[in-house]
Amino acid sequence: MSLSVSLNHRLGAFTLDAQFDAPQGLTVLYGPSGSGKTTIINAVAGLLRPDHAKITVDGVTLADTGTDSTAQPEIGARRTARRGIWLPPHRRRIGYVFQDARLFPHLSVRGNLRYGAWFAPKTAIKPNMDEITEMLGIGHLLGRRPAGLSGGERQRVAIGRALLAAPQMILADEPLAALDQARKDEILPYFERLRDALTLPILYVSHAPSEVARLATTVVALDAGKVLRAGPAAQVLGDPEVTPMGPRAAGAMIETRIIAHHADGLTELAMGDLRLLVPRAGGRVGTPLRVHIEAQDVMIATRRPDGISALNVLPATVREIRIGQGPGALVQLDADGHIILARVTRRSVKNLGLCAGQKVFAILKAVSVAKASITG
Q1: Residue 371: pLDDT above 70?
Q2: Residues in domain Mop (predicted)?
């Protein structure tokens, strides 16, 4: 199941002009505040009616402001005066998870979950409440009221309520923004479970680079209402030309697997034929892991260095160099097929004589990879 979106909307001086596809998995709308992320997600939900829109889920039309008489609308959609199609929000079968959980305070957790199930279409395959509560780890909370829950627990209940409505897609508008880091770390694994277990698209809004690298299967990078690039997470995050949050926030996501846990607290990962040492990571040998490496933590050497404390010295090839407006530059490196970004100065680029195709070494301290950046 996939989501296809084409939107054009003008709001004062701001113009949104965005087209992208969100396949099965978790697609992150990634960009700074004011880039159009929430406008897009609200248009998909039907809470905002854009000037021009075509939105389809698995080939079924939710909105089409054009006049294509061959478009197949969802049952219950109405045609507008312009002969377009517009399905009202309550008929779009969307599970929406907001920044705040928006649970009913007078209902127990069980009551809030049942409220979501009440909206499931009669013809839909009903999700099993026991399975949902087990997946989200909220079975022991069923008798509590929202006031007695932590922020992370409330968000997990909100996710459960959305899932029990038997949606055909999940929308999440910065669902972790109101949580502290401890609560974020608590709830992130549950979004990973949703990403891996569900066969429907999840559209997720974020401006946190590490969060994007941890969760996304697909990234839609946005800035000023435009799509800078859309595609698989590793490709988009590893593109030095795509830095919606600025070069200081640039970083790449690489796919690895655990090959050893060492007694000194380090975990050894395989990235192709190369090895990467990071702080102790959860999981057994053979477990696949994602690692987010920030560009500012990577150094470049033209010769293999000796006598340094950094444990990770990776042979690499320079693929591309992006010179910034200021003193900095982003260098895209290929390390055995894995893309790594390095943020260096323009002077370093000149002094090292860096150019595309050059053989170099990427240097990364093991302790510079935060535990929160190592995920399944």
Answers
A1: no
A2: 307-373
pLDDT tier for residue 247 given thresholds of 50, 70 and 90:
confident
Residue 186 to residue 101: CA distance in whole angstroms: 15
pLDDT of residue 68: 53
Task: Supply the pTM of this predicted model.
Answer: 0.86
Give the pLDDT confidence of 50-64 residue by residue, as tens digits: 999 999 998 889 999
Query: Rounded CA gap, 83 and 216, in Å?
Result: 36
The ranges of the chain annotated as CATH 3.40.50.300 are: 3-241
> Where in the chain is CATH 2.40.50.100?
249-375
CB-CB contact of 276 with 312 (8 Å): yes
Total Cβ atoms within 10 A of residue 316: 25
Helix (H) or strand (E) holding 64: strand 60-64
pLDDT in tens, 173-182: 999 888 888 8
Q: Which residues have CB under 8 Å from 360's CB, separation 6+?
A: 300, 301, 302, 316, 317, 318, 333, 352, 354
Residues 77/124, Cβ–Cβ less than 8 Å: no
CATH, domain 3-241, list 3.40.640.10, 3.40.50.300, 3.30.300.160, 3.90.320.10: 3.40.50.300
Please name the fold of domain 249-375: OB fold (Dihydrolipoamide Acetyltransferase, E2P) (2.40.50)
Residue 71 has pLDDT above 60, yes or no: no
Q: Residue 207 is encoded by which pair of tokens?
A: 């401006």
Checking if the pLDDT of 81 tops 50, the result is no
Q: What is the pLDDT of residue 74?
A: 57
Going by C-alpha positions, the residue among 296, 209, 240 that lies closest to residue 31 is 209
